[in-house]
Amino acid sequence: MAEIRLEGVAHSYDGGKTYALNPITMTWKDGKAYALLGPSGCGKTTLLNIISGLLKPSEGKVFIDGKDVTDVITDDRNIAQVFQFPVLYDTMSVRKNLEFPLKNRKVPREKIAQRVNEIAELLGIENDLDRKPSKLRSDLQQIVSLGRGLVREDVSAILFDEPLTVIDQNFKWTLRNRLKRLHLATGVTVVYVTHDQTEALTFADEVLVMDKGNLVQVGTSESLFLEPQHEFVGYFIGSPGMNFLDVEANSSVLTHNGKTIGKAAKAGLNGRHRFGVRPEFLIPSNRSGLEFKVERIEDRGVFKLVHLSKDDFKFIAKTDESYEAKVGGKAIFSFDPTRAFVYDAHQRAVSTVSPSSAGGN
């Protein structure tokens, strides 16, 4: 188990002309599970490789349990890493592939056999131990590769780089739960890279959301959903993502094309901003609120997505299954003011909306 600390870590692949990873300073606590979440190219794999030692940062320092390991090679960091695609010895059986990391560390034969059987049972590959990787489906090969990363019990941390990408969709749920159970049982520090918000939000104690080389917000799945402090978090997390609207603030009164949307809870807000509210927090109303035209309704079985338009903008509301409205007709929606946010020019949340103003006109 290990505490991982980054101090001003940044990286450029072109000598400083551009940065794939902008400066990050943070501490990952011993024994916790963290997810790096973001789209392709956002810098999450670069950050993971810096932690593991596969890549030396252009700037900053990496500490593991208080020791500066910035210049320490991967083998001496005592970290296991599982990659996006299988890394296996095809001339060896599955069993021997799992044994290999333990034999390298001269673990007693009896302990090796016990540990390999434990990992095989955890991953559901007990019946494949004597087969060659080339005889397995690609998703099973990746599960074996996952086992190689999990088999050691003496590692300080385990780093996962999108390990479930090629795994069958139905088995992903089972495997994710098993990995979570293993983490809780061992207490090893885990860093998990993914572009899949479901994987990140269900597996990690805390999620680090990244975009364009920047760490934009760190939080629990609940805080990221309920209190997105950056527009990208509102957009990227949630299905569908947050609704946004350009507004003008005048003494905190928010207007769009001269029509009042609400009033920011923060006093003295002026200038151009963005109003954001998640589809879940648009509330059907028979009285006050914003009047929309209903463009279409998607019935998802247990909820409905109501596509709305008003003047020059469109919103989506997520309602319960019982909601009824006529396509082409009018519908009134208000919003939960504690879950509606005002964002500045830097896409940062600067205010919620005053409860007395929710709904506009």
TrEMBL record:
Keyword rRNA processing: no
Lineage, top ranks: unclassified sequences, metagenomes, ecological metagenomes
Keyword Transport: yes
PROSITE patterns noted in UniProt: ABC_TRANSPORTER_2 (PS50893)
Keywords on record: ATP-binding, Cell membrane, Membrane, Nucleotide-binding, Transport
Name of the molecule in the record: Unannotated protein
Entry's Gene Ontology cellular component terms: ATP-binding cassette (ABC) transporter complex, substrate-binding subunit-containing
Example GO molecular function: ATP binding
Domain ABC transporter: 4-237
InterPro entries found in the cross-reference section: AAA+_ATPase, ABC_transporter-like_ATP-bd, ABC_transpr_FbpC, ABC_transpr_MalK/UgpC-like, Mo/tungstate-bd_C_term_dom, NA-bd_OB-fold, P-loop_NTPase
Species assigned in the record: freshwater metagenome
